[in-house]
## 1
Amino acid sequence: MKILIADDDAVSRRLLERTLVRAGYDVTPVADGRQAVARLTEPDGPRLALLDWMMPEIDGPGVCCEIRKRRDHNYVYMILLTSRESKEDVVAGLESGADDYLIKPFIADELKARLRTGERILHLEDRLVEAREQMRFKATHDHLTSLWNRGVIVDLLRRELIRSQRENVCTAIILGDVDHFKNINDTYGHLVGDQVLREIARRLLLAVRSYDFVGRYGGEEFLTVLNNCRPDSALPRAEEIRKAICVRPVHTDAGPLSVSMSLGVLLSRDWGQRPPEELINEVDAALYSAKAEGRNRVKLAKPAERAEPVTAAQALAERLR
Amino acid sequence: MTNKTNPLCPSRINFSELLARVENDRELLSDLLSIFKKEFPAYVKSLREAVVRNNVDEVASVSHTLKGMLSNLAAAGASASVARLEQLARQGEIALLHDALLAFERDVDGLLPELETHIAGARP
């Protein structure tokens, strides 16, 4: 484990360095507080620190304050190691943000035991951060495909529409639906259906740029948001996505299955300032048309060409057919 | 400072404590001695100059560093006398600094050769 030693006394620094290297630490020694702050705030910098109180540039408590101000960094466990031994100093040192306080001259075994305490706390912090990240992931991603879930993908679309209005660029919205997915589920079972959905999610992600957004909108519906998309390239890109889905069978426990997807495409600049939910309804209608025209195809949603409104019941019936 | 260790004087260094502090690492002990020999005279010089100038902040700062250095080397007497200098400086007791400095200089007199002797004797 990496550890920083900050002490202006070269004897103390050398003694600490050797003691800690022998104990298996990867030691970074520095001679003043400014260097200590710089090293501790480096990416992948030490997360354990032994700080002398009186140092040039910034003293030990000053280093603690600086580090505690930076909440975007990993937690750093800091021990003040000083010959200031009054109760007032101990209190002031701990109040500055230090986790522990040791009086010089140190006893090697005690120092190592306290560092192990620090390591335990850092380990605990790592586990908490990991658990929080897992919860954050679960709250924002679809559990089956690991794509963005419906709430997040619609929110991302909302933000992207605002941005495209502000920057006068175009966002393409693509709603895709797996053709005859009900048949797959009915014939091979839900586990095979899940395998198909996972593979389609993977193919969708491979077919878009890293900064585009892909989410699972419903059962077998996927919503893709192409940021800053040139209007003339939206349809070709939707075609690429369609081909990426049907290019080869999906390998499942029931054997290879041919799959395809129908897609509706909408260009935000054709529709003015409309809420995402309305635009999704429009692109859903284009998707319905793609289904009605034989599936495995792409249809562009055009405002003027909407002759008759498509009801939700009609769209559902077409998809289930 | 004299260059000889007086065998009749009590030791300025608790050598068994020092060995425990370095976990019986003789090589480290030699390293520490080298660093001490290089750094210590400059600190003492700074301390004297700060006392002459009645610069209490500087006296407190240098005394504090010397206190840590000497305590790491298990030189308890010298560490205590420089701790007194630090305390006096923090309290602004300018009139007492000179005598405290003399006391400190007496305590460190012969410290370096004694360390060298011990370390030479401790080499495997």
## 2
Amino acid sequence: MRVAIVSYLACLLVLVSLLTSVQASASGGGDGCNPNGAQTYLNYYFDGWTQPGNGYVMYGAKADIWNYSPYVSSVNGRTDASVVTAWSMLTESTFSYWEQIGWFEYPFGTRHTVEQGYGPGYSSAVTNFDPAQTINTYTTYSVTAAQSRIGFIFSFQYGSNTSWFTDAPHFVPTAAEQYGETHSLADQMPGDHRSYYYYETFQNAKYQDNNHNWQSFDGSYSNGTYFDGYKASSTEIDIYDRRGSCP
Amino acid sequence: MTRLSVARLSWIPAIVGGTLLVAALAAFVESSSSPSAAPLSMSQISAAQLAHGGISLSATRGAVTVGSAQAVAIAQAQFPGFPVRQEMLARLKDIHTSVDRDCWVIDMTPPGGLQVPGGPAEARVRPSGNGYLIVVVDAQTGQFLFGRSAR
């Protein structure tokens, strides 16, 4: 009788652990909670801050970004729809061209460090996928610009890696942005509503001014309908999804 | 030996030298315009599309240690569930990373193209998405080098 009870409990334990692992993979393998939102793919939703600059050249944008693993919805089982991301970016006054770096997560837990560039003469954005950083750690994601004879050369660094270089002639960076981004209301904006400890944090956030000095990012932020943020200091913003079924 | 014979013999070094020179020139022209020097395409991604992503492919330069199945498995570990349309062994040069080595290049483009959003929060145009996805694996070490998407 005792053996039967122990066997039963062992089976129950295995079953519970299996169910738990299935639930974890459905939420992206990390921190995420299902916001139970409508499937609205493909739309664009942002939560973060913008440093519009003062019209002068801006030579860099960087932040220590928490490698959060959110809930990412899938449309008809596609492995590449939708995607949730958090990033740091250099752009310009019309927001037509950009160079950005951060983490991407597709459905089913496919994560990478991603650099993307788009400039004059590009027929599409060019996107590079590097190995993912460990979730629930901070990584410094940085994009910097160097002026050369042909224009600006942008370089990207994450952690201790210098990962990618590209040329984008005639694109003069004058603004910077740092955002979380989703593409469906069924996706979770990085960070959840439980407490400060579960927010998606951009800390040590800086931009590099026209004298090549790093300055506090101190961007402009406004609250959204579904997402919220907390400007903790001139170098830190914390964002989160207001919805969700997190405990 | 007659005077004529000596004169004929004196032409031999010149003829041999000229022949060698012509052969060397022919070899140079051949190597310069060899089909293997031209950028290679993949079956569903043109050389021009690859070039837009900063990549050019050519013939490999030596033996490799990583096999096709191993390279595909490494690529699939990076992009689980994505289709494998083609795997190709090639010399890969990339202007963005300075990679210049023999690689396995695996086309893992999903049906309809890879969805890759991007751009500023205020952007009015979003020229991302619906591009190809290639995954690059070092053919000597088996290291995942990077994935790349463009149109």
